[in-house]
Design goal:
The protein is of the alpha/beta class and 674 residues long. 52% of the residues lie in helices and 10% in strands. Strands 9-12-13-11-10 form a 5-stranded mixed β-sheet. Strand 10 and strand 11 form a beta hairpin. Helix 5 crosses helix 7 and helix 26 packs antiparallel against helix 27.
């Protein structure tokens, strides 16, 4: 394997950021976005410039007081060079990537694999591979699988066939681009691409669109199927239903040399991985999926204190997702999510809340819900989060995102928050994109070579992506454009014609900078400890009724003016009418009501009771938290902190046993995840 160190991973990322940033980019902003020092960025820029000069391209331009920039001609030359030299972007695999490579290689092996093979593929030392394989064995144990070794046959993964396949389909999609760019070579590349072409024909004939990485994973699996002696069994009813589908008929058409049960299994993948809903006549559990979706949404609302204005639409969207997931849950078919790590990082609070809500699915379906599934559900919950309404400016945005419906919807939601003046924000699959269009801006997660209005972003927006969108949209936004045009008309009478373009560019940068006040960020305001100070923690030693307990617990919020007395009365009335819905766990109550019932600002108070407080229907509380939220999203960080602290009964008991507000605050400060 040939590896070039001229452009490492961070250099490649910096180059892409500079290429797709309109106007000047300050080095400090770049350092903040990448979470490195300015010195590191300057060092990386010097390496990038060496690479540029080596490829006969002018280096990155830096101007004092303005920042760095690449002109249009440089960007075009870089794109042309990168297209010719896809393999020159370096690859130093992360430990997680190496372990995924090792697992997928073992599962699809066509010969014995030894440590030396992994050293060759990953280009690391023997000791590194040995440590990797220890981590691989620990990872596999979560799925009741075991890594074994013998001198004669090398490394094997032993355990349930379905689970082994589930692990492969969970891990491989994130590795596909390494195979696609020949950084890692498949055992039989020619057969792999022949099969991939057949799968793309099936996709076209089904008029379907599959999530990125799914078809390559299937192609790799099918190309190595002769290396295994697996036997998969289905219930007669399931098999009959599957054989009646178009998916199965097309699998049989293109892969009739495979065993019957393997054809059924591949058809299941095509049924379970499709973005669109599976035909209802195949999914006879239609009512069940709707009830599951409804339960999931209600559980998310209960634990997050986010109540959706478009609840029915959200339930329908999740219902459609679950209908494509039931077969995956049942047969261990995973929907690999290459963006999982980004979703967990950029939307940490939402991801954690969604994961907790998914316990409803786990209990009802008696199966494990993977982080990949949680990540996709997170996108759905995020896409329907309340946002400000657009004003009446005429401004149209097109979004191209091949990573799935959930990702596209969430990207659209973020863009609508960033650019509320947009009158239309349309999602379009890559296959339907045409360069000839009348949109003001095109936001895409993939390169569109001939697109003049392109803003290229990550599937999950980074802060730099958000700034790029704001800068482009603010500079293009009609009112600013009208002002710039008016100024240009006047300036043309006084400025040399060959200086007008630079003057126009400087004007655009100026209007962008004065309108970009604050980039909306991925976090949701302050955490629990920001509120639990002073009198906001109380300890009560005497026996009180549940109404008195709520009044006592809410008093600090009343005293601070965060709520009115109407809010306290509303909590008491809600408790009388809705019973135990305020109990987050045994002994723990989260007292709250609707925003319109007297909330002035976000706040939290907490009270412990040495004598358990008897609530309606016989349940007792030792701790009462009172939460008031001024909108539907700012409290999410607070909620996530609460769930982290109070998710274990041991923590609830420990806090309830403490004797002073100072001890309680100290305990939470020590144990909260920061």
């Amino acid at each position: 394997m040939s590896i070039s160190y001229t452009l490492d991973k961070r250099c490649t990322e910096i180059l892409n950021i500079v290429m797709y940033t309109t106007g000047y980019l300050k080095v400090q902003d770049l350092a903040d976005d990448l979470e490195v020092s300015k010195r590191s960025v300057y060092y990386d820029i010097s390496k990038i410039n060496e690479w540029l000069v080596d490829n006969n391209i002018d280096p990155i331009i830096q101007e004092r007081g303005k920042g760095i920039i690449l002109h249009k001609e440089q960007v075009q030359a870089i794109q042309k060079t990168l297209n010719k030299k896809k393999n020159e972007s370096i690859l130093v695999f992360t430990p997680e990537e190496r372990q995924r490579i090792e697992i997928c290689s073992i599962i699809t092996r066509n010969r014995p694999l030894y440590i030396e093979d992994f050293i060759d593929i990953c280009q690391v030392s023997r000791n590194t591979i040995i440590n990797d394989l220890k981590s691989v064995d620990a990872f596999l144990s979560h799925y009741a699988l075991q890594l074994t070794y013998s001198i004669k046959t090398g490394y094997h993964i032993h355990g349930d066939t379905i689970k082994k396949r589930a692990v492969f389909f969970m891990l491989f999609p994130s590795l596909w681009h390494y195979y696609e760019n020949h950084i890692i070579e498949a055992f039989d590349s020619e057969r792999l691409y022949d099969i991939l072409n057949c799968l793309k024909h099936i996709e076209s004939e089904l008029h379907a669109e599959y999530v990125s990485g799914i078809l390559p994973a299937l192609a790799m699996f099918i190309s190595t199927i002769q290396n295994r002696n697996d036997i998969i069994t289905f219930s007669d009813m399931d098999e009959e239903e599957i054989i009646e589908t178009n998916e199965y008929n097309l699998v049989h058409k293109y892969f009739n040399d495979l065993k019957d049960y393997e054809q059924v299994y591949i058809a299941l993948h095509l049924l379970g991985s499709r973005l669109q809903a599976v035909p209802v006549n195949v999914m006879k559990e239609e009512d069940k999926t709707y009830e599951l979706a409804k339960s999931l949404v209600h559980e998310f609302e209960r634990i997050s204190y986010v109540f959706y204005d478009q609840e029915d639409e959200l339930i329908n969207a999740i219902n459609a997702h679950l209908k494509t997931s039931l077969y995956r849950f049942k047969y261990g078919i995973q929907l690999g999510n290459p963006m999982l790590n980004n979703i967990k990082t950029e939307y940490e609070e939402l991801f954690e809340l969604t994961k907790r809500a998914c316990n409803v699915l786990s209990k009802n379906l008696d199966c494990f819900i993977s982080d990949a599934e949680v990540a996709y559900l997170t996108l759905h919950f995020g896409a329907f989060m309340p946002t400000q309404k657009a004003n009446k400016h005429t401004f149209r945005i097109l979004i191209i995102c091949p990573n799935g419906i959930g990702t596209g919807n969430m990207l659209r939601q973020e863009v609508s928050t960033l650019v509320p003046q947009a009158t239309e924000i349309k999602n379009l699959p890559l296959s339907s994109y045409e360069p000839e269009h009348d949109y003001d801006v095109v936001i895409s997660t993939v390169m569109l070579p001939n697109e003049q209005k392109l803003i290229m972003v990550h599937p999950i927006l980074t802060d730099q992506d958000r700034v790029a969108i704001l800068r482009n949209c603010m500079a293009t936004e009609p009112q600013a454009k009208m002002q710039i045009d008016d100024i240009m008309k006047i300036a043309s009478n006084y400025i040399n014609p060959d200086q007008l373009n630079d003057f126009h560019k400087n004007l655009q940068d100026y209007y962008s900078s004065i309108q970009v006040q604050k980039v909306p960020h991925k976090t949701y305001d302050r955490g629990l400890l920001d509120f639990l100070k002073g009198s906001h923690i109380q300890c009560v030693n005497s026996q009180v009724s549940w109404e008195e307990a709520i009044q006592i617990s809410a008093k600090p919020l009343l005293d601070d003016g965060s709520i009115s007395n109407d809010y306290v009365n509303a909590i008491i009335n809600d408790q009388k009418n809705k019973g135990l819905y305020m109990f987050l766990a045994d002994d723990l109550v989260l007292a709250h009501s609707a925003i319109e019932n007297g909330v002035n600002r976000l706040d939290v108070s907490m009270c412990t009771f040495k004598e358990p407080v008897p609530f309606l229907n016989g349940q007792n509380a030792k701790i009462i938290l009172v939460l008031c939220a001024e909108d539907k999203t700012k409290h999410i960080h607070v909620l996530n902190d609460m769930l982290n602290i109070f998710s274990k009964k041991k923590s609830i008991d420990q806090i309830a046993s403490l004797n002073s507000p100072a001890e309680i605050y100290s305990y939470i400060d020590k144990h909260i995840e920061k």
